[in-house]
């Protein structure tokens, strides 16, 4: 049995295993121990505590001295689209030059641009590029990630995406959840036949996804001009027949009704939430559905940030995620998401860290295995460079404060700082 001891940790944070997502005042509580140790046995947290409680042992396979460093749970990124065939920086430059979203879409840009390129790519090519992105995410401290389909938009290409995600799950040390997002937009052939595309999702795609167990969740882009609340409900209910719980793109551009559908269906999460009013916030707060905020998408699209303070003060369970995708958030860096949430959305550092770790874990139902430091959970953690406080992490935005990352008992990065 391989044992690893991390000793003399200046401060170990994010301790314990809450039974439900953190809300309200609890979200700002980060349990911690100063001058701590962490003992790992065979990829799992075996014990932790204050240094003076450490029982002497004849020997450990590896001993790490973490003097001056903070140890915290690895990030849990519960909303990404990280399987894609190509970046879209040419659209980004067009937008800088003044083109509108509609003009870019008319030139074949947007989600349909990604879909064309993905349809032309092989499963192996998609796997190799997604694998590189995953490796990079792990180096930034992400230990669990949700990945959506939705750039296929045909039975063949949606299944190809989901098979890529299945291979990533099998090979990666990260905890990975797969979400079927066939209802991301309408493909050109179904521009004037929305019912026809929804029929294809329900009768051509879902039966194969169910039979091959290719997804854990079902998602719909519930938005004006995309899928209505009624269509969202119909598609999610069809997915639920195959055991897929709902995770919905809701209220990004408008009060779309996505939150209402999500709450009605008992969705695990409703994600985006740039556009919220008091009534919608109260409805979400009264439910078990997690509100996942994606601040880097709001930043990249120059939209108002999510109303984090109102959501937290109303007692909503909130999580933070990257939305990593080539169109609206070409970054999968959770450190940036946490900094932006504090700087732009006035979340306290402790709130942002909880929302990006344990609540993110709940938003992909991996809370029993990661998201906090607890005995029996996976050895998934970040060891920081030498810092003096937790608040320094979002404060010193843009700086890489990570010294080492361990995911599922493997070191995935190490600097000498
Ligand atoms: N909002 C919908 N979909 C994605 C990205 C869309 C795109 O590729 O442009 C999102 O979550 O932001
Ligand atoms: Zn998204």
UniProtKB/TrEMBL annotation:
Pathway: Amino-acid degradation; L-histidine degradation into L-glutamate; N-formimidoyl-L-glutamate from L-histidine: step 3/3. Fe(3+) binds at residues 79, 81, 249, 323. Binds 1 zinc or iron ion per subunit. Residues 70-412 form the Amidohydrolase-related domain. GO terms for molecular function: imidazolonepropionase activity. Zn(2+) binds at residues 79, 81, 249, 323. Coiled coil: none annotated. Its EC number is 3.5.2.7. This is Imidazolonepropionase. It is found in: Cytoplasm. Its cofactor is Zn(2+); Fe(3+). InterPro entries: Amidohydro-rel, HutI, Metal-dep_hydrolase_composite, Metal_Hydrolase. Its main location: cytoplasm. Pfam families: Amidohydro_1. It comes from Terrimonas ginsenosidimutans. Transmembrane segments: none annotated. It comes from the Bacteria. Catalyzes the hydrolytic cleavage of the carbon-nitrogen bond in imidazolone-5-propanoate to yield N-formimidoyl-L-glutamate. It is the third step in the universal histidine degradation pathway. It catalyses: 4-imidazolone-5-propanoate + H2O = N-formimidoyl-L-glutamate. 4-imidazolone-5-propanoate binds at residues 88, 151, 184, 252, 328. It is an enzyme of class 3 (hydrolase). Belongs to the metallo-dependent hydrolases superfamily. HutI family. N-formimidoyl-L-glutamate binds at residues 151, 325, 327.
